[in-house]
Every structure is written in structure tokens, then in C-alpha cells.
Amino acid sequence: MLDKVQDTLFSHVKPADTAFRGDGLRDFFLYRDLGVADATRGKVVAQLVIAHNAPEKGTGWHRHEADFHIVFMLRGWAKFMYDDQETLVSAGDCVHQRPGVRHYLFDYSPDMEYLEIVGPANFKTIDVEPVCPVPESKGWGL
């Protein structure tokens, strides 16, 4: 076990150390890297994700090639489809997205902010065929 610990580095990222950026997976979100990918040499990524633009079409149906994926909602809310199950994720909720689960984020509040932790850091996102109809986004949930 100790040999695995020695493969990682200490990391301490303060809010002013990294800015929210728009070059992440989705152009309607902003992402703030928390330094974990570098510290774990790519084993895990941790990032804050915030709403940037009102939802129009959402993420579309997709899955991730990842061994581990959690979303912890810090503020606001988001609505997901996980397979055929509509799921409201609100502030304080934690979701473990099992590997390969087909999902679709289709609506969220303007103040939405979540912590996302995924392993490995360079996980892939793969579009999939629709699982079921998706409720319409209400554009900032209004």
C-alpha cells in the first residue's frame, strides 16, 4: 500500500490558485481544476463545475469510461436521467455514477455548483442511443 502512496504528490489548491475555465467537457458549464489530477499522476481528477449558461438541450445521452465517478452538489440543483430514472440532485446530495451508467443532465439551477471526482483523470465520454424520452428543460428551471 505504501508504494501506491509514494506515487502521489501533496497538493493544496486555494480558491485564488485556479480559475473557472470554459474549456471543459461542456460549453455551458465552467470548470475549476483542484490539482488532484497532477498530484495523483492522472489517477483521479477533482473539479468544481458551475452553471455558465441556461440549459438548452442538456448533455445528451452518454456514458463515461471511468472506474469511479461521484458528483457532490454544493449549491443549487440539477436534473438527470440515469437510464430511465429521473433524478433530482439537490445541494448536499452525493451521487455515485456506477461505471458505464447511461445518463443525461437536462436541467439545472443558475446557482448550480458541484464537486466532481472521477478516476481515471482522462476518462472518456461516449455518446449513446437514447434510453427513453427526456423531460424538457425549463431554462433555469423556471
Automatic annotation (TrEMBL):
It holds the Pfam family Cupin_2. Gene3D superfamilies: Jelly Rolls. Residues 54-105 form the Cupin type-2 domain. This is Cupin domain-containing protein.
